[in-house]
Design goal:
Length: 190
């Protein structure tokens, strides 16, 4: 039986994607030869609300139902992409990201609603606190220069985005990277 790698996400605006891509170019130009990073293509930038994992096609409708429940009664809002950070911690960076500024509390509320609606339908909760972010790249080797980046770009403004929908994506893995295919778009509604 075919399984689909499914996640729920929020897309940021095209101007914000362009600003984040510009930041990626700056960082790449400053990147040392010892530092190996798998950079996320700008077209794949998003804020993951929940990763569901490998599902059978029939389960994807349940994910969309959870998203509809979460979106009900939530008005569209604005979120700002701001600042550079790493996961899991600065001493052991594995993921390089741009965080969220204004609107982050609304994003956390929406994610919590999605988590609850998903759990009601039988999906396991994530178990980790939600930390909304845009992944810029995955650090594969080295750490040289990352401390400087974290200081120099701690307040980097990557613009605001109007958030008005949850997107249910399938992640298809290919040799050249992941391709994200939209299965459902669930509008936020007052």
């Amino acid at each position: 039986m075919k399984h689909l790698r499914i996640f729920a996400a929020i897309n940021v605006s095209i101007p914000s994607v362009r600003k984040v891509a510009e930041l990626q170019r700056k960082l790449r130009s400053q990147q040392s030869a010892e530092l190996k990073i798998g950079w996320v293509p700008p077209a794949n930038l998003h804020i993951t609300l929940k990763y569901y994992g490998n599902l059978i096609p029939e389960q994807v409708e349940a994910v969309a139902a959870a998203a509809r429940t979460a979106a009900k009664g939530v008005a569209p809002f604005e979120v700002t992409a701001r600042g550079l950070g790493v996961f899991p911690k600065p001493e052991e960076p594995r993921i390089l990201w741009v965080g969220l500024g204004g609107g982050n509390e609304r994003m956390k509320t929406l994610q919590a609603r999605l988590e609850e609606a998903s759990e009601d339908l039988g999906f396991e909760p994530d178990g980790r606190p939600f930390s909304g972010h845009l992944t810029l790249g995955r650090i594969r080797q080295g750490t040289e220069g990352i401390d400087t980046w974290l200081q120099d770009y701690a307040e980097e403004d990557c613009l605001a985005s109007s958030i008005d929908e949850i997107v249910i994506y399938e992640s298809r893995l290919h040799r050249k990277g992941a391709e994200y295919v939209s299965h459902y778009r669930v509008p936020l509604n007052r």
